Amino acid sequence: MKQLVIWLCSSKSDALAALIRQFSNELDAPVFHPHITLLGSVKTQDTDAYITAVENACSDCKPIEVSLGAIGYEPIIWRSLYYHAAPKDSLVDMHQILSQQLQHFGARSDNYFMPHLSLVYKEMEEQQQLKIIESYSSLLHHRILLFDEIRIMEFIPDDIEGWSTIKIIPLEISDSLSN
């Protein structure tokens, strides 16, 4: 049985990837692909059916221009340092569409869904988090990136660097974004 998660990614996220690598090197933390988690872990034995269901759920989804907000932090590994992501409503809508369409796989809507882009996965002391935020607070703040693909990832909780891409689903650019 595989644990799968759904990420919203940017095919052009070099600056974010470089920043994540920098934090990984400085903090001895794992490296991962820049993403916004749209749907958390779902366990399934039928990966092919899950992929098809995600493709169907995303068939009308368009790329989203995401603005990176302030850097936040929490005392949990998955949100130890992150950028707030906006527009929140569009990202919440994608989360709800996926959780509704994938209910028969055990997907659940998260009433506390908070769109964010993690910068590091590591347990850290609050003082260390605050020091990093002070040093990097203006870096990439208010940067707008086009998030234009859905990634279905195999999630291995104890092996972040072992996460692997199962499928990439490109989101089609509408006429309003391509002009």
Beta fraction: 25-35%
CATH class: Alpha Beta
Mind telling me which CATH architecture this is?
A: Alpha-Beta Complex
Q: What is the number of helices? A: 5
Strand order of the largest sheet: 2-1-7-8
Give the biggest beta sheet.
4 strands, antiparallel
Q: What is the count of β-strands?
A: 8
Order of helices and strands: EHEHEEHEHEEEH
Q: Roughly how many Å apart are the termini?
A: 44 Å
Describe the structure in your own words:
There is one protein chain. With 179 residues, the chain is of the alpha+beta class. The chain has a single domain (2-178), classed as Cyclic Phosphodiesterase, Chain: A. It has helices spanning 14-27, 47-57, 88-101, 126-136, 175-178, and strands at 2-9, 36-44, 64-72, 81-86, 116-120, 144-147, 149-154, 164-170. Strands 2-1-7-8 form a 4-stranded antiparallel beta sheet, with helices on one face. Strand 3 (64-72) and strand 4 (81-86) form a beta hairpin. The longest helix has 14 residues, at 14-27. The termini are far apart. The model has no long low-confidence stretch (mean pLDDT 90).
Observed structural traits:
single chain; 179 residues; alpha+beta; Cyclic Phosphodiesterase, Chain: A; four-stranded antiparallel beta sheet; 5 helices; 8 strands; 30% strand; globular
How do the strands and helices of this protein lay out in sequence?
Elements: E1 2-9, H1 14-27, E2 36-44, H2 47-57, E3 64-72, E4 81-86, H3 88-101, E5 116-120, H4 126-136, E6 144-147, E7 149-154, E8 164-170, H5 175-178
Antiparallel strand pairs: 1-2, 1-7, 3-4, 3-6, 4-5, 7-8
